[in-house]
Amino acid sequence: MTFITGGAYQGKTEFAINNFGFSESEIADGSAEIEILLSAKCIRNFENFVYAVTESGRNAVTAAEAILSQNPDVVIIMNEVGGGIIPLERSERKKREAAGQTGCMLAEKAETVVRLVCGIPTVLKGKL
Questions:
Q1: Cα 60 from Cα 115, distance rounded (Å)
Q2: How far is 14 from 55, CA to CA, in rounded Å?
Q3: Res. 1: pLDDT tops 90
C-alpha cells in the first residue's frame, strides 16, 4: 500500500495520476460504497470514509485495516486534517481524532508514504 497525504488542494490526486498511471475512472472517493473501495486501485479523500465510519459508531482504524486486508496494493490519498482550529463540537473532534489515528496506522503499514505541500512531494518512507 502507498499512502499519500498533505493538506487540501496540494496536488495529491495529480501526483497519483502522474506517478502511478491511474485514470480518473480508476480513482474512487472515500465516500463510495465499501464494495468499490475494496477493489479500487486508488482511493482519494479517505478522510470521508473515516468520518462516515466514526459517525456510525464503528472504529475507523479497524475498518481501514479491513480494506487493506482485502486490497493490499491500494494507493490511499488522505487530507491532513489535524491542523488549524480545534472544533467546538465533540463529534467533530472525535472525527478528527479518528482521522489522525487512521493516518498513523496507514503510515505505519504503508510501504511508501508521500507528503505533498504546494505540489512538491516529499517521500517520508520507502521509495517511489
A1: 21
A2: 29
A3: yes
Q: Do 78 and 103 meet the contact criterion of CB atoms below 8 Å apart?
A: yes
Backbone φ/ψ region at 54: left (φ over 0), alpha (ψ -120 to 50), beta: alpha
CA distance 65 to 87: 27
User: What is the dihedral sign for C-alpha 72, 16, 29, 57?
Assistant: positive
Render pLDDT for 56-102 as a digit per residue (tens, 0 to 9): 999 999 999 999 999 999 999 999 987 788 889 999 999 999 999 99
> How many Å separate Cα 63 from the centre of its chain?
13
Please provide the DSSP assignment of the chain as one string. -EEEEESTTSSHHHHHHHHH---GGGEEETTS-HHHHHH-SEEE-HHHHHHHHHHTTS-HHHHHHHHHHH-TT-EEEEE--SSSSPPSSHHHHHHHHHHHHHHHHHHHH-SEEEEEETTEEEEEES--
